[in-house]
Amino acid sequence: MHKNITCIACPRGCLLTVSGEAEDLIISGNECRKGIEYGRQEILEPLRMLTTTVRTTHPVYTRLPVRLSREVPLEQIPEFMKVINQVCVSRTCIPGDVMAVNLLESEVDLIATGELYYEKG
Ligand code: SF4
Asked: Which pTM was predicted?
């Protein structure tokens, strides 16, 4: 295997070259040790932070922006989206509020990144 990837562990954005096989990856182009960790992770089990929106019952603001509480394996994103698409918010919330817990029993929560306000009564 021979692959070029950009390290996104810091703003410098080193261009990493990854070669070799799973147990014996050779990574070059990194300016620091974090690049080795990033390159291995990206090749062996890429992680992504999922940000999206969920439905609401609000008459005006029908979608609420949300994110997961941590990065998850890239290949599991479709499964997370299936669960997230079932969520419908019907209460006031502010950024940081937990909207759903332990998605897919992975101890990953769904966090609001926007606010929504329902009049009382
Ligand atoms: S290898 Fe190190 S210096 Fe280069 S982008 Fe990654 S974290 Fe930044």
From this structure: 0.84
